């Protein structure tokens, strides 16, 4: 079966700055591809290309084996690629169900007599959240009253409801405590089990390892390594993320300096 999404030796420059070079990975249905790296590694540039915010300069970007170069995020969305950014782009004072439908609200009536179908909006939101295993007390409550983890879960359920095939999650656990991060990862797994291809962006290997099927490690815009889960363990993943080889070289260098009379 063809990957839902694939990039081959993709690259992006901004003037003389090389933001991304020679990056390749695949996203399959029912799998999680995790992109790991520290700040400045190129994670943001990669997801902006996948989400249609920026266009790549080199390499190939394929959606279900068809080469694409999105002109806008709307075009990416039309191809079934939904992105949930770290700031979530929610309206805190607006209810959960209004945020769920933001820009696509259900209506009743015709022409100038159209009105917001509040009942359908509430019922649909409650059912969509329930289908993902999310049980909110009241979908009329302002979304700003939810915890960070609950807000991430609402955004994931929204993308699933509106027909996303590929779900890109930008650092969904970055600002969360241990328990809330666990809740979000549970719903990432739910989305995967429903057949979506998930791209999980994170700098935390301990959040990535339990849910990911493959890992792409980036450093300064270039691939540091690409692994399937069976080929790497959490200790080696953490070592590479922490710059283990560089730390070992530094330690060796310091020992040499200490030995010098």
UniProtKB/TrEMBL annotation:
Domain ABC transporter: 5-245
InterPro entries the record matches: AAA+_ATPase (IPR003593), ABC_carbohydrate_import_ATPase (IPR050107), ABC_transporter-like_ATP-bd (IPR003439), ABC_transporter-like_CS (IPR017871), P-loop_NTPase (IPR027417)
Keywords: ATP-binding, Nucleotide-binding
Keyword Iron: no
Keyword Cytoplasm applies: no
SUPFAM superfamilies referenced in this protein's UniProt entry, alphabetically: P-loop containing nucleoside triphosphate hydrolases
Gene3D superfamilies assigned to the protein according to its UniProt record, in alphabetical order: P-loop containing nucleotide triphosphate hydrolases
Molecular function via GO: ATP binding
Descriptive protein name: ATP-binding cassette domain-containing protein
